[in-house]
From TrEMBL:
SUPFAM superfamilies tied to this protein: ADC-like (SSF50692), Formate dehydrogenase/DMSO reductase, domains 1-3 (SSF53706)
Domain 4Fe-4S Mo/W bis-MGD-type span(s) in chain numbering: 1-53
Protein known as: Molybdopterin oxidoreductase
GO MF annotation, one: metal ion binding
Organism (species): Actinoplanes nipponensis
Length: 694
């Protein structure tokens, strides 16, 4: 039997696994890959169950009546599916212009597929209309890192460095549930005496194991960071030499945090002055130290500025670029890092180049063999595009790959209405997701074990996804789908469906860019168990650790940026008196389109539960396991209650992995961060009603 080493299809750890085709199922085991070191979570252990799942899409589906999306889906040939797609694309572009046809991608696509999707929209469709679900994940942290450090690589050091840090400040992160194998590094640090401080409105599994748990009101993380820097300045804990030699702009930040005195920050956040002072002193004196942020801090209408505030703190303490130290942000989706580097974003070209940069356009156009003037200018960001679907000036025909926005987008009820308003909706997926169920054409795609390609994990380590078995007979990879569609649109000469050919072209397109993959080959990845970018040449060793000597900015220095606290876009009031925040569970992943079909995971957590503090539940006459309805200004959702003394009494929490009337994103606020266009998933005002009123 052939054993194929590849990687888990879920989160950004990209844990190493080995697949052995057996009858009746594929056997899956963890490997001693440098990230997971033989560990796997429940999702990883059960990933092979999806390969022959009874719900698997095995043939294209089209509407029985092509003029009525309410008619049932029926099986079709690929030729018929292509005919409907091409007809819809050509009709929309003829009537509404090129930008009326677009694509929405995903952070789970391989680098090759993400690259090809961005190229397809700009070269085959010649449209500006593309973005992806990573805009809902990493965009705020990426924006802050780019403007301060000159580069966005979630962790600018290997995960193993976390085990060496004496102090770790985790802000809005719950890796114990979101990526359990990573906890071995935190556990190893604690075993050697490290102190970990977790900032979260809930006492999560991560917080429960930490030295200190700080519980701020959702939406006040920026005030907390500015307050910590204020104390560092007052107590002489900042690294003035580092600031002088390696940064610019600190005077503005020094002035800004002057008003964030501890007593004021305690009132704003609910975190005691004593704990604020202790946190700063540990970061400054118990070194090496690092600050790690995640979506709890970043998915806000001021998420970029919040990430910026923690970057400011890390720079002021002289942490960035020193061994086992620094600032990082924890990427969530499987290829959330690579997916945002190579052209899925509305304003981006491969290699993290800007689409509005003439030099970048010229370089990439030369690789693609087109005139730079043919390339469109930047389009609309993810929610801005979804908000205008089916309207004048908006996208009228949409291709969706590896995304389920009917569940994952904010104000999901509105997004579903917009999807229904499209002239043409095409969805490529493994299963009939909530989004695919709305489509005119549904295409079956290959799964992780059935394709070749590369992924880039949360450390910036480029790894190989290897094919262990062929896909079912009528299932194609997304590369095959896109190349075939380009051919039918008369642009096939620009595209290949061979992953290695695509990756070699990606290497050339990224060469000289921020995310430079030019020196990374399939052979090197295999021999070295992953290669860290930037890697500009085949004789370059790759870059596991960034910023040791300089920053990739114009002057080689990191840039402080002054930021101020702003209240969340939506504050509690008499009608909606509580704050809702959202997040992950250990058993489920993203929109749940895959994990909700795995029996072991569903038995462990069959339904979402809303967490309430017992004091709040008592006031509302709610008992554990009662049904409750949450309502916001945008919609209603129904959950079973779970009483949790570890959550703030003014805050409720619900996971986002379910659809239908259990979709928490029916409630969430689509207000966008002005810099990154990240929606405010993590704080909105809700009312709570016992029972399930209608």
């Amino acid at each position: 039997m052939t054993v194929t080493e590849t990687h888990c299809p879920y989160c950004a750890l990209q844990c190493g696994i080995a697949l052995t085709p057996e009858i009746p199922r594929v056997r899956l085991e963890p490997t001693e890959f440098p990230v997971n070191r033989g560990g796997l979570c429940a999702k990883g252990w059960t990933a092979a169950e999806l390969l022959d799942h009874r719900d698997r899409l095995l043939t294209p589906l089209v509407r029985k009546d092509p003029t009525d999306r309410g008619s049932p889906l029926r099986e079709a040939t690929w030729d018929e599916a292509y005919e409907r797609i091409v007809g819809g694309i050509e009709r929309c572009q003829r009537e509404y212009g090129r930008d009326s046809v677009g694509a929405f991608g995903g952070g789970g696509l391989t680098n090759e597929k993400a690259y090809t999707l961005g190229k397809f929209v700009r070269v085959a469709l010649r449209s500006a209309s593309i973005d992806y679900n990573g805009r809902f994940c990493m965009s705020s942290a990426a924006t802050a890192a780019n403007r301060t450090l000159g580069v966005d690589r979630g962790l600018p050091f290997p995960l193993e460095d976390v085990a060496q840090a004496r102090t770790v400040l985790l802000v809005g992160a719950n890796p114990a549930d979101a990526m359990p194998p990573s906890m071995q590094y935190l556990d190893a640090g604690r075993a050697e005496g490290a102190r970990h401080i977790v900032v979260d409105p809930r006492r999560t599994a991560t917080a429960a194991g930490a030295y200190r748990h700080l519980q701020p009101l959702p939406g006040t993380d920026l005030a907390l960071a500015n307050g910590l820097l204020h104390i560092a300045l007052r107590e002489g804990l900042v690294d003035e030499e580092y600031i002088r030699d390696r940064t610019t702009g600190f005077d503005g930040v020094r002035a800004a945090v002057a008003s964030y005195w501890p007593e004021r920050v305690e009132r704003m956040t609910g975190v005691s002055e004593a704990h604020l002072r202790e946190t700063v002193r540990l970061l400054a004196t118990e070194r090496p130290s690092m600050i790690l942020t995640a979506r709890g801090a970043e998915q806000h209408s001021n998420g970029t500025d919040t990430a910026q505030a923690y970057l400011n703190l890390a720079l002021a303490l002289g942490l960035v670029g020193r061994p086992h130290s620094g600032y990082g942000t924890i990427t969530g989706q499987g290829n959330g890092q690579g997916g945002r580097e190579h052209g899925q974003k509305a304003d981006q070209l491969p290699g993290y180049r800007r689409l509005d940069d003439p030099a970048a356009r010229a370089h990439v156009a030369a690789v693609w063999g087109v005139d730079p003037d043919e390339l469109p200018q930047p389009g609309r960001s993810a929610y801005e595009m979804l908000d205008r679907l089916g309207t004048d000036g908006g996208v009228r025909a949409l291709l969706v790959l590896a995304s389920n926005m009917a569940v994952s987008a904010p104000h999901a009820g509105h997004v579903i209405d917009r999807l229904r308003a499209l002239d043409l909706l095409v969805v490529s997926d493994i299963f009939l997701s909530e989004t695919a169920a709305l489509a005119d054409v549904v295409l079956p795609t290959a799964q992780f074990a059935e394709e070749e390609g590369t992924m880039t994990n949360l450390e910036g380590r480029v790894i190989r996804r290897r094919r262990a078995l062929p896909p079912p007979p009528d299932v194609r990879t997304d590369l095959q789908f896109l190349a075939g569609l380009a051919d039918r649109l008369g642009r096939g000469r620009f595209f290949s469906d061979d992953p290695r050919t695509v990756f070699d072209e990606l290497r050339r397109a990224s060469a000289g860019g921020i995310a430079d993959y030019a020196g990374i080959t399939y052979e090197r990845i295999e021999a070295e168990r992953g290669v860290f970018w930037p890697c500009p040449a085949e004789d370059h060793p790759g870059t596991p650790r960034l910023f040791a000597d300089s920053f990739p900015t114009a002057d080689g220095r990191a840039k402080f940026v002054r930021v101020e606290h702003r209240d969340p876009h939506e504050m509690p009031d008499r009608d909606y008196p509580y704050v809702l925040t959202t997040g992950r569970t250990m058993q489920q992943y993203q929109s749940g389109n895959q994990t909700r079909r795995v029996s072991a995971l569903t038995l462990s957590l069959p339904e979402p539960r809303v967490e309430l503090h017992p004091d709040l539940a008592r006031r509302l006459d709610i008992a554990d396991s009662d049904m409750v309805e949450l309502s916001s200004r945008r919609g209603r959702a129904v959950f079973r209650a779970r009483l949790n003394p570890g959550i703030r009494p003014d805050t409720v929490f619900a996971p986002f992995h379910w659809g239908g009337d259990q979709a928490v994103n029916l409630l969430t606020d689509p207000a966008l961060d002005r810099h990154s266009k990240m929606p405010a998933f993590k704080a909105c005002a809700v009312a709570i009603t016992k029972g399930t009123p209608r």
